[in-house]
Amino acid sequence: MRPLRLAVMLEQALEVGGGFQQPLNDLLWLRDWASKSGNEIVVYSPDPRTLEILKEFGVTARLLKFGPLDHVFLFLKYCGPFDLVQIASKLKSPFERTLIRDGIDVVHFTSTSKRHLLLYELPFIITIFDGCHRDAPEFPEVRTFGEFERREILFGLASIKAAVVIVNAPELTDDLCRRYAMQRERAVCIPFSPSTYVSQSQPNADADAAVLTKFRLEPGYLFYPAQFWPHKNHVTLLAALALLRERGIIERLVLCGSDRGGRDKIDAAIRAYGLSDQISIIGFVESVELGALYRSAAALVMPSYFGPTNLPPLEAWAVGTPVIYPEAFKAQAGDAAILFDYDEPRSLAEAITALRTDGTRERLRAAGRLRLAQFTAETEAGRLQFARHLERLKHRLALTAR
């Protein structure tokens, strides 16, 4: 039986943060799987910068941009009746024709890509990180200008048409089965794992100090790495710091990430609360700098509304940094975080205060190591299950080889 030729699509840009780092982890594992199993992977990205980053890991990728005709196909696909035209005429998008010319058997989307709508002949694997447009539709980034409807089309079709659906939490499998009638046996749960840049980052006093000097920081700050979206809930964190300041407790906060339209409101809140001397906004940081920023923090504080899982807690646990996290995501955090109500600044203020009580930091570090070890074991189990699905696909596709 000839090798399975798997296309691995890395569409997210580095600035997306976890949406880039998690697919990178998946790719590195798939490279090892292909080497050991005698199969092949071909890596594609529409972003030239991603190709350069992958070279650092010894991965050669192909640039595959999506042209105007592909976008026409997508638009018509959203319109619905175009399916009948394609069925009758057997039209294929330029995107799919390129993959077929490259001898691809299966397309693996490492994010919830709209490009799966361009595939009529090739089977695909889809990754679904969350269902937050259903969980929290009040946020504009998942509701306005047709975004909610677009996601419904993507999620609905992907979860029932994909040969395999990769999720990061059992709760997400339950949601997809309930909302879109996904067949449960097609889901593979592979929990998030820390960014390679963080997990392989070794403590180095001089190097860490250089990073802090670059950003004019002193150790012991609260750290929140997140893009500036409304759902990231920065304002509740600022309100909590203002409450603490009223009690004479001054906490410094470092924010990093790219602006997605929420920065102006955050700047205004900082001024309104009088917190300018406590807040450092350092923008997008290089991946290699993240380890030092986590290690130098008193705690990761993450009030995001979107889950059920997030990447930063795992990265904080990997370097021994305590975590303060919403109680809504207790299924991920277990006892390895101080939990709070993400709608209540006072609850978050109390959680920050609790960090300073005797023995709390040591307890959280130990619990974080155990929690990370548990997720590591679950990730390995999920990848073994995924490998079995890939072998099943290889056998079935051999029966229908072109």
Write a compact overview of the structure shown:
The chain has 17 helices and 13 strands.
What does this protein structure show overall?
Helix 8 links the parallel strand 6 (about 165) and strand 7. The chain is of the alpha/beta class and about 400 residues long. About 50% of the residues lie in helices and about 15% in strands. The protein has 17 helices and 13 strands. It is globular and about 70 Å long. It has a 7-stranded parallel beta sheet, sandwiched between helices. Strands 10-9-8-11-12-13 form a 6-stranded parallel beta sheet, with helices on both faces. It has helices at about 20-35, 50-55, 70-80, 80-90, 95-100, 130-135, 145-160, 170-180, 195-200, 205-215, 235-245, 265-275, 290-295, 310-320, 330-335, 345-355, 360-400, and strands at about 5-10, 40-45, 60-65, 105-110, 125, 165, 185-190, 220-225, 255, 280, 295-300, 325, 340. The chain folds into 2 domains: about 5-195 and about 375-400, Glycogen Phosphorylase B (Rossmann fold, 3-Layer(aba) Sandwich), CATH 3.40.50; about 200-375, Rossmann fold (3-Layer(aba) Sandwich). One of its GO terms (molecular function) is glycosyltransferase activity. Keywords: Transferase. It holds the Pfam family Glycos_transf_1.
Question: What's the layout of helices and strands?
Answer:
Layout lengths: L4 E5 L8 H20 L2 E6 L2 H8 L5 E3 L4 H12 L2 H8 L4 H8 L4 E4 L14 E4 L4 H4 L11 H15 L2 E4 L2 H11 L6 E3 L6 H4 L5 H11 L5 E5 L8 H13 L6 E4 L6 H11 L5 E3 L8 H6 L1 E5 L10 H8 L3 E4 L3 H4 L4 E3 L4 H11 L4 H39 L4
